[in-house]
Amino acid sequence: MSSLNTKTGHSMDWTKYHRLADIYGYLNYLASTYPSRVELINIGTSYEKRPLYVVRIFNRSSSVVKPAVWIDGGIHAREWISPALATYIIRQLVEVPANEALLCNVDWFIMPVMNPDGYEYSHAFNRLWRKTRSVTSWTSCRGVDPNRNFGYKWGGLGTSTNPCSDVYKGTRAFSEPETFATSNFIKGKASSIKLYLTLHSYGQAALIPWGYNVVYPSDYSDMLELAKSAVSKFTKYRYRVGNAAAIYYPAAGGSDDWAKSIGIKYSYTFELSDTGAYGFLLPASNILPVCQDFFPALDVFAAKVATMKV
Ligand code: 0X9
Ligand code: ZN
C-alpha cells in the first residue's frame, strides 16, 4: 500500500503506529484543510529541538469563550497506543461530520505527542524507552520521567534522584522543556479548561487524583461519578476506576495531580489497553478496536464540560 493516500492527501491511518513525521504531517494537513475548525499551535520546542504541537479544535458558532477539554498523549515514549488514540480523536472531531455536535459547546485542545524526542527514540533505537532525552549530570544515562517532573508534590513518593532510573524526577520541577511548555500553555488557559485527560498505557484503568499518595480530593465523588459514567460507554474493554495511588501506586509529580492542583476540576489518567498480555508492545491490530471503544466516552465528558461556567 502506498504511503500517501491520493484521495485525502495525507498518510494517516490506524493500521500501524506512525512515526512523528507522519503525525505532524497529518496535523499540518488538517490545519491547512480545515482552517475554520483547526488551529495548530506551536507551544515550544523539545530538548532535541522538535516542535511541540497542540491542536485546537473549535466551531466558530459564537464568539464567547467556551469551556474546554484538554487531552494529551505520548508523555511516556513507549506507550504507542496513546498518541495513536489522540490522533484518532483529532480525526473524529475534525473530519467526521457525525461528531460535529461535540464542538458546539466545547473547545478541544489536543497534544498527541508531549514527549516527541522519547517517542522517536522508542521507534529508532529502544522500543521500551519511557523518558525524555535530555542529558543529565555526569552519568551516561539520559532522560527524565515527564510524569515525575510536574510541579505538584514534586520529588515525593515513587520518584527517583538517580538519572539512570525510569522514574527520575529531574533536577527541579519542570526542568524538561516538554513539561515546562505544556504546563505554561495549560496555565494560560486554566480558566477555560475544565477537564484534563492524559493518555497512557497499560492496564485498562481510569486513575483519579491524588496520585502522590492515597489521598482523596474533597470533590473526589464528583470525579469518580464522571469517570464511571465515561467508562460505562466502553463495550469491548473493561476499565477499573479509582484513586491513582490506591489502584496503581503512589507516584508524585504526575501531570494529572498538577492539573488538579491548578483548579481543573476533572483530571484523569487513562491507562489504555491491554492488561498485560502485550503491555507496551500492543500489536497495531488493536489500535482501531481500542480507539473505537474509547471515543464514545468523549460524549460523556463533553456533556459535563458543556455545563460548566468559564
Ligand atoms: O507511573 C505513571 O506515571 C503512570 N503509569 S505508567 O505505567 N503509564 O507509567 C501512572 C500515573 C498516575 N498518576 C499519578 N501517580 N499522579
Ligand atoms: Zn505512562
From TrEMBL:
<protein>
    <recommendedName>
        <fullName>Peptidase M14 domain-containing protein</fullName>
    </recommendedName>
</protein>
<feature type="domain" description="Peptidase M14">
    <location>
        <begin position="16"/>
        <end position="305"/>
    </location>
</feature>
<dbReference type="InterPro" id="IPR000834">
    <property type="entry name" value="Peptidase_M14"/>
</dbReference>
<feature type="active site" description="Proton donor/acceptor">
    <location>
        <position position="271"/>
    </location>
</feature>
<keyword id="KW-0862">Zinc</keyword>
<dbReference type="Pfam" id="PF00246">
    <property type="entry name" value="Peptidase_M14"/>
</dbReference>
<comment type="similarity">
    <text>Belongs to the peptidase M14 family.</text>
</comment>
<dbReference type="InterPro" id="IPR057246">
    <property type="entry name" value="CARBOXYPEPT_ZN_1"/>
</dbReference>
<keyword id="KW-0479">Metal-binding</keyword>
